[in-house]
Amino acid sequence: QVQLVESGGGLVQAGGSLRLSCAASGLTFSRYTMGWFRQAPGKEREFVAAISWTFGITRYTDSVKGRFTISRDNAKNTAYLQMNSLKPEDTAVYYCAAYVSGGSRWYLPDASRKDDYWGQGTQVTVSS
Prior knowledge:
Blueprint: E1 3-7, E2 10-13, E3 18-25, E4 33-39, E5 46-51, E6 58-60, E7 68-73, E8 78-83, E9 92-99, E10 117-118, E11 122-127
Parallel strand pairs: 2-11
Antiparallel strand pairs: 1-3, 3-8, 4-5, 4-9, 5-6, 7-8, 9-10, 9-11
């Protein structure tokens, strides 16, 4: 059974930092793209960052470029999201996901496949 478990969320003041972790089990971690997504109250879930299964290529949404860093440790089956210079608008539930995808949109889950996996989410709240 595949499990993704996020941790590291919490309450932080604007300008602060948090490091999210996503521990995976039940899958060949090194073969999956790992992504972070977030959903703020009243909004749709949005893409934040992804790291490819090979070569560690990364992709970020524009609003977090230069502030967030995604990484992975295949030996530990864990993905990370280092979040610096946090802003109130970063407040959301953050989800990690593991998926197989390709092409120009490799950083997003492939809607035609049924083998993407999601964690339960971790709350990040940034106070002003």
